[in-house]
Design a protein that fits this description.
Order of helices and strands of chain B: HEEEEEEEEEEEEEEEEEEEEEEEEEEEE
Distance between the termini of chain B: 94 Å
Largest sheet of chain B: 4 strands, antiparallel
Largest sheet of chain A: none
Number of domains of chain A: 3
Distance between the termini of chain A: 116 Å
Shape of chain B: elongated
Oligomer: heterodimer
Radius of gyration of chain A: 31 Å
Number of strands of chain A: 0
Strand content of chain B: 35-45%
Order of helices and strands of chain A: HHHHHHHHHHHHHHHHHHHHHHHHH
Helix content of chain A: over 70%
CATH superfamily of the largest domain in chain A: Tetratricopeptide repeat domain
Helix content of chain B: under 10%
């Protein structure tokens, strides 16, 4: 009998332990944000009619879940941030932080929301809390960098140069902070100190236009005219490689997870991958879901539908997309390109010529010139085809240059010169490339030819002055 | 048996104690379902200034000058000018969605109708009307961005449309440059013809140029400044020495005001007149006007362009700044308005009291609050103390404004243009006009 009672007591004890163990674990899980909480949290979403129906659905769904779950609360705050409702988002991040004060992404995003809502001091205080947190992974380390950078930028917004400088000075391993430091030093007439900051960065990122731009400004202050001009040439050759404004990135990273933006991104990806059927379905879904109200996202979906029709070589849909765009008062380069392509695919060469010609009035792109050249060739207009080919070669040359391929660019300009030695633009392009690759003799000769064709060619005149300055400096160094 | 009994007693004690232990622990760490939500210290969540103002004591009524908007219009510039020289003011608009310049003309009965004046211009930012060939009619010089959206590519142009009996004839007078935001005319080298000042806005790279007129519609470009983001280049005799100088406002993180002092022969010396380290200020334009009527040209700077944000809100430094010309290329800055998202300003004596007032429009006020201001005017008390009055809250996203007398009643009226590429896509407008009159506009 007693053994049966013992057995019964064991069962009861195990049950008790299981019950208390489970309730304890679930509390720990909630603390970690991985399970549903039973506390009811206040949810506050903007009282407006949302224009993006996907966004509205997602927001509604999340706001229902968020009243009992901090995970959903965090996601709700994100979706509000992505929609630009910074003040509402800040409020929900604050709720998350009340439970988990060390949640670094929530803290950072709350700071960002306050920052963009015009509360500079309040956002700085939040960014400072981020910088005092312990990062658990690389993404959190990056948040600390961004927070420090944002603190410095907030001091700039308050025109507190001293504190901004201190902040950037202490943030040595983050290149954007060092660029800000160099700017501050340059603008406070300390060019040598600025150059000491810029030079190691230039060594690290030789084709960053920002670094060369600020170095040019320093050299100007130091009355080094030739040095300044050389740096400005590197600005022209460089590219925007070192972002200094992360505001859009912060929002975009979240935006791409919700609403029309998410679907548009998916459609773009499908198009890139060549999954035309998938892209078509995604875009049609977006357009079916969109109301008749004009939205920027609907416009993007329509233009992507046009891109899809281009890939499908579908003149009917190209014409349809162009028509829809015009009905929405959009008569941009894409509208005309779709019309031109539709005419080309249907071999309506007269209309195609008119449309490609119209496009070249709006943009000097290789694509437009190539198509126009083909239409001229197909209609036996050899002279016009040759003139257009010249423009295409020059456009290709400049594209190569923007891709930091001056040698390839030069080949295109030389082909253009072969076609028309009296082309000022071809000579100028060749001269510029020759300068960039260090062939100053060819460069000067081509600049002079450009000036012979057009005595008022400003860039050629300026470049010759630059070459003269260079010669003088060279001679002085030899003496 | 004794062992079984001892084990029984032990188990019994455990069964009784475990719940007591569990519950005592639970009350200290577990949230209770009925517990209220955590209390958060909800401080103000957004800057509260610069959004709405008292209703204007001057009354305005809307005037229909344009077609209803289709889609999302992108109007970049409006100006009031008697272009067709019929004695009545017209409205000239640059449209970056239709990619054209439109003229809105009024007939003798005051009915307005738009017609395209120039087509196939890629994202025109400004149209400068000047008789460049001196044949007695107005030609149009178009500042071509090439792309309304941020773009550092070499897509800009300056195109001159010569007015001829057969229509407007296109001449490309500057290409191979980045996005061009403004062109202003003036004789800089004193040779009697019209030269041009050019703001190449670009994006990461840009410049200020002046184009020397060599006759026969041929121009030579001279570089004045290399800097990204130059928006406007107003021309006037800022130093009072009898020749035309150029000023330029550089935005895009730089936020600098430049003057180019002319020696009368086209030698223009750059002077940085002012700058701020506040990269977020958002300079949005520059207007030359003698605001204090002391005989020299001042500058008016609207600030609030934060298009780096998808959803920009009023910031504590937005509004309008007056740069009072104190002579010798010294300008004293004063903030005269705090309208959030201010994008354009114009100067004129709106209340006919003999002093100069200012009209401002907002691109990015807090638009979800429908009473917030889209158009305001700043009443000058004659001592350059300005009071802000709200004129309209619809349409929104306004980026350009002009003042002039539209109905020939001797009072200044207002025209504004909307650039609808940011949320909310609401209260969408194209070209809106308000005339001074008896019927009030919903404010």
């Amino acid at each position: 009998m007693i053994r049966w009672l013992n057995l019964l007591l064991i069962v009861v004890l195990v049950s008790e332990l299981a019950w208390f163990g489970w309730t304890r674990l679930s509390h720990v899980a909630v603390e970690k944000g991985t399970s549903e909480n039973v506390v009811r949290y206040p949810v506050d979403i903007p009282e407006i009619t949302f224009q993006d129906p996907y966004y509205a659905e997602e927001l509604k769904d999340l706001s229902e879940k968020a009243s009992t779950s901090l995970d959903s609360m965090l996601e709700l705050a994100d979706v509000l941030l992505s929609g630009g409702f910074y003040q509402h988002a800040a409020k929900h991040y604050e709720l998350v932080l009340a439970e988990f004060p060390t949640h670094m992404p929530a803290r950072f995003k709350r700071a960002f929301c306050l920052d963009r809502s015009g509360l500079i001091a309040e956002s700085t205080a939040q960014y400072e809390m981020v910088t005092q947190s312990q990062p658990i992974d690389d993404s959190e380390k990056q948040l600390i960098n961004l927070a420090t950078y944002s603190i410095g930028r907030n001091y700039l917004r308050l025109e507190d140069a001293e504190k901004a400088e201190q902040t950037f000075l202490s943030h040595k391993d983050f290149i954007p902070s060092q660029i800000q430091l160099a700017k501050l030093l340059t603008r406070s007439a300390r060019p040598r100190e600025a150059i000491a900051v810029l030079d190691p960065l230039i060594e690290e990122v030789p084709f960053s236009l920002e670094l060369h731009f600020w170095k040019a400004r320093c050299l100007e202050q130091l009355d080094d005219q030739l040095g300044m001009l050389e740096e400005l040439r590197l600005v022209e050759r460089g590219a925007y490689l070192l972002p200094s404004d992360f505001r859009k990135n912060i929002v975009e990273n979240i935006q791409e997870k919700f609403g029309f933006s998410k679907r548009l991104k998916q459609a773009e990806k499908l198009l890139e991958q060549g999954n035309l059927a998938g892209a078509q379905k995604q875009l049609d879904d977006i357009l079916n879901k969109a109301s008749t109200e004009p939205l920027q996202e609907t416009q993007q979906a329509i233009e992507l539908r046009g891109e899809l029709a281009m890939r499908q070589q579908d003149p009917r849909n190209l014409s349809l997309v162009a028509l829809v765009m015009k009905q929405r008062d959009v008569n941009n380069a894409n509208t005309i390109r779709f019309e031109a392509a539709a005419a080309t695919f249907t071999r309506n060469l007269e209309l195609a010529r008119l449309k490609w010609e119209q496009l070249t009035r709006l943009e000097s792109s290789e694509m437009a010139f190539r198509n126009l050249e083909q239409v001229y060739n197909a209609t036996g207009q050899a002279e016009l085809a040759e003139q257009t080919k010249l423009k295409r070669l020059i456009a290709t040359g400049w594209r190569y240059f923007r891709e930091n391929r001056p040698e390839d660019a030069n080949k295109e300009f030389l082909l253009a010169i072969e076609l028309d030695p009296k082309s000022e633009k071809a000579q100028l392009g060749h001269a510029e490339m020759a300068t960039y690759v260090g062939d100053y003799v060819s460069a000067e000769s081509a600049y002079r030819l450009a000036l012979t064709v057009n005595p008022f060619c400003g860039p050629a005149a300026r470049a010759i002055s630059f070459l003269r300055l260079r010669d003088i400096a060279k001679q002085e160094s030899q003496w | 048996m004794k062992l079984d009994l001892a084990f029984f007693l032990l188990l019994l004690a455990a069964v009784v104690l475990v719940p007591i232990w569990g519950l005592s622990n639970q009350t200290s760490v577990e949230p209770v379902p009925s517990e209220p939500a955590p209390v958060v210290k909800t401080a103000p969540l957004g800057f509260t200034g610069g959004k709405s103002y008292p209703a204007s004591p001057l009354t305005f009524s809307t005037l229909k000058v344009d077609e209803p908007p289709l889609g999302l219009p992108l109007i970049t510039n409006v100006q009031i000018i008697d272009f067709n020289r019929d004695g009545r003011n017209d409205i000239l608009t640059c449209d970056a969605s239709r990619n054209c310049i439109t003229i809105h003309e009024q007939d003798a009965s005051g009915n307005w109708a738009p017609r395209p004046l120039i087509e196939d211009v890629a994202a025109p930012a400004h149209a400068t009307c000047v008789d460049i060939d001196r044949d007695g009619d107005l030609d149009v010089i178009v500042s071509i961005l090439g792309n309304i959206f941020p773009d550092d590519k070499v897509v800009g142009r300056v195109e001159l449309f010569e007015q001829t009996p057969d229509g407007m004839v296109r001449h490309v007078i500057l290409d191979q440059v980045r996005r061009v935001a403004d062109v202003q005319a003036g004789d800089f080298d004193g040779d009697g013809d019209t030269d041009l000042a050019v703001a190449v806005f670009g994006y990461s790279r840009g410049e200020v140029l002046w184009l020397e007129n060599h006759g026969s519609l041929r121009f030579e470009d001279h570089l004045l400044l290399t800097a990204p983001g130059t928006i406007h280049v107003p021309v006037a005799d800022f130093d009072g020495d009898g020749d035309l100088d150029i000023t330029a406002i550089v935005s895009q993180d730089e936020e600098e005001l430049w003057g180019f002092e002319n020696d009368g022969k086209g030698n223009l010396t750059p002077r940085r007149l002012w700058f701020t380290i506040n990269f977020d200020l958002g300079s949005a334009g520059l207007v030359a006007a003698d605001l204090d009527q002391d005989g020299d040209m001042d500058l008016v700077l609207p600030v609030g362009d934060n298009l780096e944000d998808y959803d920009a809100y009023p910031q504590p430094y937005h509004g309008c700044y007056w740069f009072e010309n104190q002579g010798g290329w010294t300008f004293k800055m004063q903030r005269i308005a705090d309208l959030g998202g201010t994008y354009a300003a114009q100067v004129g004596d709106l209340d006919n009291d003999g002093d100069e007032d200012v009209v401002l429009v907002s691109m990015t006020n807090e638009w979800y609050e429908k009473k917030n201001a889209a158009v305001v005017w700043l009443e000058n008390d004659g001592q350059q103390n300005f009071k802000t009055w709200q004129i309209a809250s619809d349409p929104i996203h306004l980026v350009t404004v002009a003042v002039g007398d539209l109905n020939a009643d001797g009072k200044l009226d207002i025209v504004a243009g909307a650039l609808n590429f940011r949320r909310p896509y609401d209260r969408v407008g194209r070209v809106a006009a308000w005339v001074q009159g008896s019927r009030e506009v919903a404010q």
